[in-house]
Amino acid sequence: MNPKEEKQAATSTSPTSTTNGSQQARQLSCTKCFDALWFCYSPYHQMQQYYRYGDFDTCFSKWNALLDCFSLKTKRLSEVQEILEAREKEKAKQHIWTYWTVEEASVNWWMMYGHMFKLPPKSKTDS
């Protein structure tokens, strides 16, 4: 697995779909979370993190994903399906691009980058 696949596997538990007669059921597999945790402690990943960010990866997010997967394994199947569906809906709401009106974009831009500019004082004729 490449590092991008590992990061993706670590951020979410991996439900796999199987057909059981006419009804579709989800089976939760913690293998991807375990693989991501295993890869996190590899010398390749740790040196990559050190090179990019100047510090080693603590792998806390991978541990949390694995423990979350294990905790889902202890729940009833109906609860697990509801939780996973809610997570998928929440993930679908998040989009890489956020669409704003011109006014919202302007306010956001000034909040992010306004500290870099010193605006000239308003004169009495500008009012």
Report Rg: 23 Å
Strand content: 5-15%
Number of helices: 6
Give the biggest beta sheet.
2 strands, antiparallel
Q: Uncertain spans, ≥5 residues at pLDDT below 50?
A: 1-11, 17-25
Mean pLDDT: 78
Helix-residue proportion = 55-70%
What structural category characterises the helix and strand content? Answer: mainly alpha
* Strand/helix succession: HEEHHHHH
- The global form is flat
End-to-end separation in angstroms reads 62 Å
Keyword list:
single chain; mainly alpha; 57% helix; 127 residues; flat; 11% strand; disordered N terminus; 2 strands
Any overview of this molecule?
It is a single chain. The protein is mainly alpha-helical and 127 residues long. 57% of the residues lie in helices and 11% in strands. It has one domain (3-116). It has helices at 3-11, 31-40, 43-53, 60-73, 77-93, 102-113; strands at 14-20, 23-29. A two-stranded antiparallel sheet has the order 1-2. A hairpin with a 2-residue loop joins strand 1 and strand 2 (23-29). Helix 1 (3-11) packs across helix 2. It is flat. Mean pLDDT is 78; it is low at 1-11 and 17-25.
Structural topology:
Blueprint: H1 3-11, E1 14-20, E2 23-29, H2 31-40, H3 43-53, H4 60-73, H5 77-93, H6 102-113
Antiparallel strand pairs: 1-2
Helix pairs in contact: 1-2, 2-4
